[in-house]
Design goal:
The complex is a heterodimer of chains A (100) and B (193). Chain A is mainly alpha-helical and 100 residues long. Chain A is 77% helix and 0% strand. Chain A contains three helices and no strands. The longest helix of chain A is centred in the C-terminal third of the chain and has 31 residues. Chain A is elongated. By secondary structure, chain B is mostly helical. Helices cover 73% and strands 0% of the residues of chain B. Chain B is built from nine helices and no strands. The chains are: A mainly alpha (100), B mainly alpha (193). The interface between A and B is large, with 78 and 94 residues.
């Protein structure tokens, strides 16, 4: 039997890897990917807790998180394509038009 | 004993491929590393008696979401990528923040105590099979969130179509210079970040 604290430690480490990737990388797509890593860390925590609490609540929540992650990926990558298409002819270095 | 070894293997692979995924230069390699990570996450779900979620993890995450990422990576030419200013100017500050957060989280884990137990014990789930138990929960207790999730997917579908659609006026000015450009620049060896 694997203790619960192992799962929670692994989930915390995975979440922090995602945070690190989000803070340090500059590529938009890799930043989205880091968000997926963070969501996976949370998912692991929820599934482990729902197993150790004899409840299906956490697993239902994980199911919805996966759904929302799919929607988020579709929208985010659509925005990335739209950005790329509109700025392709100019020098693509920094996207700071919304900074005001 | 076998379970512990399996957990150790999965945890090692998850941490290693996660660190590689955020540190490799080539974005395609990053996505492939995340693919490895998702497969091992599915393995961990199996050790937690969540077979349905393991299957969903592989089918939806590895099969759909990561393939979408790969498509977009190949569509957006690899050399002139989309760059944002990083939130933190110095990468080391970001790393220190992440490590500090990890240490803080791991430090508080021993203080965690479990709440009261629910009704779905492992034996009850095994008797009914996991998929059936999830379906029962999903269509009774979580019926409204389930419908809202369907609505969110519909919104994402329409939003993705609208965002990725090419405007009528853009076609002439965009297509002529772009036709040769991405193909000559698609060499993955020349990725600059």
């Amino acid at each position: 039997m694997i203790p619960l604290s192992w799962y929670m430690t692994l989930a915390a480490i995975l979440f922090c890897i995602g945070v690190c990737g989000f803070l340090t990388r500059r590529n938009v797509i890799i930043m989205f990917l880091s968000i997926e890593l963070m969501l996976n860390g949370v998912n692991l925590n929820l599934v482990a807790l729902s197993h150790f609490l004899d409840s299906l609540r956490g697993q239902a929540f994980t199911f919805f998180i996966i759904t929302v992650a799919a929607a988020e990926a579709a929208i985010g990558l659509g925005i990335a394509i739209a950005l790329y298409r509109s700025r392709r002819t100019v020098h693509v270095d920094t996207i700071n038009q919304l900074k005001g | 004993m076998f379970l512990q070894i399996f957990f150790g293997y999965c945890a090692l692979m998850i941490i290693a491929s996660g660190i590689l995924a955020i540190s490799l230069r080539n974005p395609v390699h990053c996505v492939l590393m995340v693919l490895v990570l998702f497969f091992h996450m599915a393995g961990l779900y199996l050790t937690l008696n969540a077979e349905f979620l393991a299957a969903v993890q592989i089918i939806v995450y590895a099969g759909a979401i990561l393939v979408l990422y790969l498509f977009v990576l190949f569509l957006v030419s690899l050399r002139e990528e989309l760059h944002l200013d990083a939130f933190i100017p110095n990468a080391w500050v970001g790393r220190i923040i992440a490590v500090g957060l990890a240490l803080a989280l791991v430090y508080v884990i021993p203080a965690f105590t479990l709440g009261e137990k629910g009704t779905w014990s492992t034996a009850a789930i095994n008797e009914l099979t996991h998929t059936k138990a999830m379906g029962q929960e999903m269509y009774t207790t979580y019926l409204l969130p389930f419908e809202i999730a369907g609505l969110i997917l519909l919104v994402a579908l329409i939003g993705g179509l609208v965002l990725a659609r090419r405007d009528e006026g853009q076609i002439e000015e965009v297509e002529t210079p772009s036709d040769q450009k991405p193909r000559s620049q698609a060499d993955p060896k020349e990725v600059t970040l």
